[in-house]
Fold this protein.
Amino acid sequence: MLADAFTILMVVAGCFFFLAGTVGLLRFPDSLCRLHALTKADNLGLGLIVLGLLPQAGSVQAGFKLVVIWALVQFASASASQIIARVAHRTDTEGRAGIESRRNS
Amino acid sequence: MTEFLMATVVFLLVVIGAALVRLLVGQSAADRLMAVQILGTGGGAICLLLAVAIDSNAIMDVALTLAILAAFAVAAFSLPSQRPADTTSEDPDHAG
């Protein structure tokens, strides 16, 4: 009973962070800002969902597999976000100039 | 609990579908790359929820594959587009 309540709480929190990450991806003005929303909020949502699923996993092996998958997604997202940031920085010169002109005017 | 997890899967599917709008409206290549990246993270979350809801460990491996493929897609996208073989044949000044 307590495990079910914990699962429901964590999974709902995880879904909220996924929704926040998507809203950020759609609404933030700059590529690098959207990258923040994508990597931080979405990975936090995944972490909360994995934490919520741990009591529901059938065995210790399944729970261990959940944690390993979460850790691997963290590593993959960390490297991918650095690569995307470099690509965005290379190709986004007029975007940054647009923000600078908006700030000065 | 199974119904709750299935409802969560449907909710996450709608959220990720909305995020893919960034693919349509994307202003640069990095934006489109991010919209594909969300398939790795969000799709992995959906597969993990499904694996626990219907009690099938094989779908957890699908989540693993999605996460790795997303990372590889980003790495492949950021490679320079010119291969070394082209530069040696076209440019006699450069060696190797």
